[in-house]
Design a protein that fits this description.
about 240 residues
């Protein structure tokens, strides 16, 4: 059986047609390496912010259930477009929502926590040789209600799915080429860190580093899932966190 690898694409890496095609090329590379990729995708570009702006233009305090119904469309756009592009080059892909793979969460809206995966849909798609393209950040709560995780929760989705499938690492595809000691855009003396441990990365994330969601780092440590920061333009590993 082929080795499974989880590839999580951040929203900035899917912001337009050119970036989506770069993502498709990276997925194709993994297939050519004999790997069966499982993809988790964020909403492309600033789609979530656009959807939230629309909601708050109509209400100062929009209903949280309806907000979840609204903003989960952003990830569905990403996974559908990726799947369309992959199938166009004869790579059999299928887009899936969090609810379709049975990613079950606590019942609250706009900040739920993942509990478990209750469906065998994901495994069935893998058994067929399909590349699952999963909408991150979302799941299903009580009474089949659509729920969302905390903002940035696609990272958490990816780590949890990796742990459930027995994958030993997650490739976080980012628009940065690694984790630095300082903000490289503001500090010329910033140095890239090739290897980090979970505790250091967790502290940086809590202090405002936007590379990874703190909950994803915490879960990766708990489940012993290595995180690799991958630069979207080259597909090369920038920083390994373990």
């Amino acid at each position: 059986m082929k080795k499974i690898s989880i590839l999580k694409f951040g929203g900035n890496t899917l912001a337009n047609k050119e970036k989506i095609l770069l993502a498709v090329n990276l997925i194709k590379q993994r297939v050519e390496q004999g790997i069966l990729p499982v993809v988790v995708a964020s909403a492309n570009g600033n789609m979530t912010d656009i959807l939230l702006d629309n909601a708050y233009s109509l209400s100062k305090n929009p209903n949280k259930r309806e907000l979840d119904m609204l903003i989960t469309t952003g990830e569905r756009i990403s996974v559908a477009l990726l799947s369309i592009a992959l199938n166009d080059i004869n790579l059999p892909a299928v887009s899936l929502t969090g609810s379709q793979i049975g990613l079950t969460t606590t019942p609250e809206h706009a900040g739920a926590d993942i509990k478990c995966i209750t469906s065998d849909r994901l495994q069935k798609e893998l058994d067929k040789g399909h590349i699952p393209i999963i909408a991150g950040f979302q799941g299903i709560g009580e009474n089949k209600e659509i729920t969302t995780l905390k903002r940035g929760g696609s990272d958490v989705s990816a780590v949890f799915i990796a742990s459930q499938l027995g994958a030993d690492h997650v490739e976080m595809i980012k628009d940065v080429d690694g984790v630095y000691t300082k903000d490289p855009n503001k500090n010329k003396d910033a140095e890239k860190l090739n290897l980090m441990d979970f505790d250091v990365m967790y502290k940086l994330a809590l202090e405002g580093a936007n590379v990874l969601h703190p909950d994803a780092i915490k879960l990766a440590k708990e489940k012993n899932v290595e995180i690799r920061i991958i630069y979207y333009k080259t597909g090369e590993v920038g920083t390994i966190i373990r």
